[in-house]
Design goal:
This protein is an alpha/beta fold and 329 residues long. The protein has helices spanning 2-6, 23-30, 50-62, 85-98, 122-129, 133-136, 167-178, 185-195, 205-231, 255-263, 268-280, 307-327; strands at 12-18, 34-39, 66-73, 101-105, 139-144, 158-163, 236-237, 246-247, 250-251, 285-286, 299-302. Its cofactor is pyridoxal 5'-phosphate. It comes from Dunaliella salina (Green alga).
């Protein structure tokens, strides 16, 4: 709905990170807008570079585009990086200066697996910065019950909080929402429980706190387990999964594998993922599905399998990769 409100025609552009969650490129195309990509820096933990953003905006404007919005995903999908408060401050300064609406995809905010960069919301940083940013940044913040420790994708509960958005615009977005009559009951209940969890003294507080803490601790162990496994393999490197639910390793495929992929009319990472699926039953998503730097290949895999299953996943993946590399020397 927010992209629909932002985009008027193909002149309107939206900045989207590469690699990106494909919902954005698909929706921007659906509403007739233009995708303005900005690449994250894999060598710096998938960091965001303000100079890269400025160049992307300048390039789009030189092509006659009007950049109206910018998406950032924190923690990242598929890259798993977490932005620091300083990163967010730079981002907010950039958005206010360039008069760009900031779309903060913060749906993985509960999924943090390190202590150096805890989740900080864009709205909090904006208020901490004071004026003129606290009143001039047009901010759309997104959250959902589909992620976090609830992980209830099927209940379809989520929200957008609009900060410093013109009241007339909000009214129009409400009209668009009203086309669907009303949100589903279970989704509303799920959102309510996420935003209002049990408090100390409540009957279910101890159980909720214990289950949530144990799940996050387990996810942190799984993130380390998967990252370490990828980094132990020939031709594969992976930044640590700081947050979200995925690992996104880079694969350096041997020439023989690239030739085999070309013969089948497939990208190198697609070929690898299909071979992995056929040999092990492990389903991954090739990096080409998210966008990636030219000449590189990646795959995205989740860290969600239960801890007792993850060791089996790691063993199967390692065995496959060793055999794949030997077969394609």
């Amino acid at each position: 709905m927010c992209l629909n409100a932002l985009i008027r025609n193909s002149v309107d552009g939206v900045l989207v990170p590469i690699p990106q969650y494909p919902l954005y490129s698909a929706s921007i195309s659906l509403y007739g807008g233009s995708l303005v990509p900005y690449e994250l820096d894999e060598s710096k933990g998938w960091g965001m570079n303000i100079d890269t953003l400025k160049k992307a905006v300048q390039q789009a404007r030189s092509e006659g585009k009007l950049v109206r919005g910018m998406v950032f995903i924190n923690p990242g999908n598929p890259t798993g990086q977490c932005l620091s408060a300083d990163n967010l401050k730079e981002l907010i300064e950039f958005a206010v200066k360039e008069r760009i609406v900031l779309m903060a995809d913060e749906v993985y905010q509960e999924n943090i697996y390190q202590d150096e960069r805890p989740f900080v919301s864009a709205k909090k940083v904006m208020h901490d910065m004071g004026e003129p940013y606290a009143s001039q940044l047009e901010l759309l913040s997104f959250h959902t019950v589909s992620k976090g420790t609830s992980g209830e994708c099927g209940l379809r509960g989520g929200y957008v909080e609009m900060t410093n958005i013109h009241p007339g615009t909000i009214e129009e977005v409400y009209k668009c929402a009203s086309i669907n009559l009303c949100p589903n009951t279970m989704g509303q209940i799920a959102i309510s429980t996420m935003l209002n969890p049990p408090q100390p003294g409540d009957p279910s507080f101890e159980q909720h706190h214990k289950e949530r803490s144990e799940e996050l601790a387990s996810l942190r162990r799984r993130a380390r387990m998967v990252t370490d496994a990828f980094n132990s393999l020939e031709g594969m490197t992976c930044n640590y999964t700081e947050g979200a639910m995925y690992s996104f390793p880079q694969i350096r495929l041997p020439p023989k594998a690239m030739e085999a992929a070309k013969a089948l009319g497939k990208a190198g990472d697609v070929y690898y993922c299909l071979k992995l699926l056929e040999a092990t039953g492990i389903s991954t998503v090739p990096g080409s599905g998210f966008g990636q730097e030219a000449g590189t290949f990646h795959l995205r895999t989740t860290i969600l399998p239960r801890e007792e299953v993850m060791a089996d996943f790691v063993d199967k993946f390692k065995s496959f990769h060793i055999q794949f590399m030997n077969d394609h020397r």
